């Protein structure tokens, strides 16, 4: 057993209102004691117990490690040229996924593994201590299976997204592809997956096809999450709620009924403003979701086509500036909200018993995450009790 005292904390975000002020449970002049992989104590520094080691936060703010509940890190190639074309006026239709599928199928295991590990390390350096990672660029039994294996090496929060798009060889035979996804492909992927996901969108999978995919995954013990209502209003959000999915992701085009359905459910609305930024699209109506009482999470959607960022701080800045979330709402959504979207109670908070995942900023307040966009404010990351 070893213990570490982190003191010199200008402002501690606990995300537990019982421990401090406001919804973020803020404690000024704070300290945290970690014992092995867990938080053992939080409070005012003048009351801190002794510990074996000490880390001085230097007056910086400390918050729970970011929980990025939506990423696509297993792929090959990049789509910088497509991005440039889009910025020159071409619309995003979702078809660019096929470019990445071709590159991913042609890549070796080692190439895929190296890219996923590089992006995981990049996210960790920026404070992301929990990350969900999807497959979805293989779209064959063998390629989805190895994508999941690699995703699972990077994170236990791995998601089977065989129903990302219908691959070219199944053009015009979507129902045949759905049968493959629900059968042989799911069986091959399931040992490495915690979650099942589907891109429920016109041009991808309709409500019945999406329901079939999610139900097949649930029957095999996976929990559901849904790519919903990104490009247009549609059935994705209501399907997510109907099936008790942990999260409906994107939520860019919502009707009043969709907002009410989310607010009356345990399904988290996960907003991915990096995608709207990178596709120059209108942002989701975060204020309507929050006003209705829905739980909102923020995630990066890190992928090579529509949101090639691993920065949760950037997403917080976008949420505040572009979606009119307040800084406390955005920081909560990027930590505790992400934990809710992954149905985790051990991360996204710094209360005793939580996992020892925390971020030390070189700034006195969490407000600086939105106030100083684009600035690398993460000074130190502790992940699972290890100072990285
Ligand atoms: Zn996605």
List the keywords:
Urease, subunit C, domain 1, 17 strands, binds zinc ion, 8-stranded mixed sheet, TIM Barrel, alpha/beta, about 35% helix, globular, 2 domains, 7-stranded parallel sheet, about 400 residues
**Sequence of secondary-structure elements:** EEEEEEHHHEEHEHEHEHEHEHHEHHEHEE
Question: Regions with pLDDT < 50 over 5+ consecutive residues?
Answer: none
Which distinct ligands sit in these coordinates? zinc ion
Domains (count) = 2
Secondary structure tally, helices: 13
What about the largest sheet? 8 strands, mixed
Radius of gyration: 20 Å
CATH topology (fold) name of the largest domain: TIM Barrel
What is the strand tally?
Answer: 17
Proportion in β-strands: 15-25%
CATH domain class of the largest domain: Alpha Beta
Distance between the termini: 19 Å
Helix percentage range: 25-40%
Mean pLDDT: 97
Q: CATH homologous superfamily name of the largest domain?
A: Metal-dependent hydrolases
What CATH architecture of the largest domain do you see?
Alpha-Beta Barrel
**What structural class do helix, strand and pairing data support?**
alpha/beta
